[in-house]
Structures are given as structure tokens and as C-alpha cells.
What we know:
Layout: H1 18-45, H2 61-65, H3 77-96, H4 103-131, H5 136-156, H6 162-165, H7 170-187
Helix pairs in contact: 1-3, 1-5, 4-5, 5-7
Amino acid sequence: MSTDAPRPARPARPARGTGLLLLVGGLIGTLASGVLTYDRVRTLEDPLFSPGCDVNAVLSCGDVMTTWQSSLLGSPNTLLGLAGFAALAGLGLALEAGAVLPRRLWLGLWAAIAAGFAFTVWLIGQCLYVIGALCPWCMAVWAVMIPLFWYVTRHLAKPGSTLRAVPHWLVPLALYAVLAALIAAEFGGRLL
Length: 192
């Protein structure tokens, strides 16, 4: 009589570099969110304060952070960014240290990143077509969210799936190109 029960599947290790991407992306997002939070507090304290990223009429954090879109859920979006990106950095550090995350945690992470990515896409549209200004720190967050969403999605795809067959660099590069084209089409030579 055999007592060998089938072993549960071990969680798949992420592709090399995914932990580093979460760590670096989380740190960049935390930095951007922290600077924007600081600048927002300063603008509330002193209406004449001008954030350092107010370069011109198009590149203007101040114009973006004072809109209703910057506080969609009632508090500044940057506070969500501080918490979310810090958590990503922590998970990235754990992965780089050798941690193996259970699939349920990966699915929760994907859901959070997917929600953040959808929110980012909405904010990009708002900045381009409603607000009419770009925030350099916000654009740093946009740049981070693209590979975070893609590589975590790719990690969760089954081996041999079409998603895994696509060269890993193709989707982020294509999305960066689309974003650059949208910015160029909307603002043209007014950026600098």
C-alpha cells in the first residue's frame, strides 16, 4: 500500500530579472510618488509654490496635481502610489533574495498591477486630452507601469502560450512607441 500522495505543484519561479524589475520599478514609483506628494503638500501650504518639475506650459506637475483627476478617490493618487510601489519594491527584494511566491500571491499582485495599469492608461488620456499638460514624475510612473504589467502578466501565462511566444521586449517597446507618438501628436514642438 503506497502512501505517496501527489505533491502539489511548486510555484513557478519568475523569469530572471522579474524580481529586479519589481524592486527597481517599485523604487522609481515610490520616489516619483514621494516627490509629487511633497510638492502637493507644499502647494497646499503656499499657493505661490512652484514644483521643480514645472518646466513650461506643457511639462507642468503643478497643472496636473491641482486637477480633480489627481485625487480621484478623495485623497491624492500619490498616496496610493507611495503604498503600492513600496509594496512592489518589497516583493522585488524578497524575490531577489530567493523567495518563491505562491501563485495566489502572484495573482493578487497581477490584479493590483492590472488595476494600476488601467488607472495609468486613464490618467494618460486625461493628461493628453483633458488637462493638456504632462507631469514628468507622472511620466516616470507611466514608464514603470508598462513593463511591470507586461512582465507580471507574462510570468503568469502558461508555458508555451502565445503570450510567452512573443519576444519579451516587444510589447513594452511597442507601448512606449505608441505613448511617444500620442505625446508628439498632441503637443508637437511645445514640449521644450
